[in-house]
Amino acid sequence: MDKVYIEGLTFQATIGFYAWEKEIKQTLVIDLAMGWQIAPAAENDDLSKTLDYAEISEAIVEFANANPVDLIETLAERIAAFLMAKYHIPWLRLKLMKPHAVHNASTVGVEIERGQPLTGQQR
Ligand SMILES: Nc1nc2c(c(=O)[nH]1)N=C([C@H](O)[C@@H](O)CO)CN2
To answer: What residue stretches are annotated with the Dihydroneopterin aldolase/epimerase domain (predicted)?
Structure first.
């Protein structure tokens, strides 16, 4: 299956279970792989036939800031559902990290896979 990637998308958002976390913004980092048939875009050299990683990166940051939640699990699920619906993405793997949450860990996070990978016939 072909994929379009965004790795290390780093941004600030309000996220966290504790009251003090609702008053600040914290760093989040996303790695995202999206199943997509890239041949039509390549054949026509046409951005409109693929997933625009620049547009999607902006959409993720806007969505995260418009939808503050407690848990990174909740944000990961909501971003996945939002992207799949808006961009008709059949399958994605999303890793959401909160690097400064645990002082003696380099990062913490969740990783989810949603949807169905494209089969050979759909490629
Ligand atoms: N599995 C999770 N564990 C924790 C989360 C979370 O979102 N998922 N969040 C917190 C706090 O918000 C933490 O980041 C503050 O130190 C704790 N554990």
So the answer is: 4-114
